[in-house]
Amino acid sequence: MHSNKYFTKELLREANNAAIREKRNQAIREEVIEGLDDALIYPVFNYFYHAKNEMRVMVVLGYNGKWGLLDMSMLRYDSLPTSVSKDDGSVILEDEESYNARRPYPNAREWQESIVLKPVRKQKSFRDEVLKAYNNQCAVCNISNSKVLRAAHIWPVSDGGTEEIQNGVCLCVTHEVAYDAGLFFITTEGKIVLNTEDDLKIDYQSIRYPDNKEDHPFMYNFIKRKEFFNY
Ligand SMILES: [Zn+2]
User: Fold this and answer.
1) 37 alpha carbon to ligand 1 midpoint, in Å?
2) Other CB atoms closer than 10 Å to residue 195's CB: what's the count?
């Protein structure tokens, strides 16, 4: 037996609208949700305790490996329906009455969290945060002069990547340009793979991760980058 959270299209739309309203970092494009089939369910493939009282979920949106990321409160996450997969291959879905009973405001079709995440201190810039996390050193070479260090986005912001440390990697100018030109890439395990015969003066086989585990890049940012650049 295996249990799993899932969304109906209606619940996904509701949670997504809430993420936008509550100014959370990840939401799914509305047209993607509107294009989904009403009759299907959309399982939560993976989830991360992302920030205090916030959950980030990966939702499967189709059969072809399409998925989306959505941030929500723990309260909302807990209220999602649960499916149970049995060993004989059958799947039992929770009935609506049962999961509606877990909703904190059962009569409100759409509820808004009264506590919206707000930064406690003034948000430092993405660059400052990333450089600090990487101890002011390029993640692929030994350059440590902050004048030539950049914070590269792993998953491009133009495609939906965030300005969070976990979507950043500290690179010197040369390596940032090489990274964006696709001359090397970084696997989900952090391995550096060259895509050119040129000597890129890369000193490591894997990126040098930040000391603090919480600052390590999220794996899905590398996956999204791979999708975006199609390599
Ligand atoms: Zn470098």
Assistant:
1) 46
2) 13
pLDDT at residue 153, rounded to an integer: 94
- Return d(Cα 43, Cα 6) in angstroms, integer: 4
What's the domain range around 213? 123-229
Cα(181) to centroid(ligand 1), Å: 14
CA of 150 to the centre of ligand 1 (A): 10
Alpha-carbon gap, residue 9 to 38, rounded angstroms: 6
Q: Rounded to whole angstroms, how far apart are CA atoms 35 and 40?
A: 12
Q: What is the whole-number distance in angstroms between the Cα of residue 71 and the centre of ligand 1? A: 33
How far apart (Å, rounded) are the C-alpha atoms in residues 115 and 113?
5
Residue 78 has pLDDT above 80, yes or no: yes
Q: How far is the CA of 149 from the centre of ligand 1 (A)?
A: 8
* Residues 14 and 87 placed together within one structural domain of the fold: yes
Whether residue 26 has pLDDT greater than 80:
yes
Gap between the Cα atoms of 154 and 166, Å rounded: 9
* 109 is a domain residue: no
pLDDT, residue 126, reads: 93
Give 138 Cα–ligand 1 centroid separation in angstroms: 5
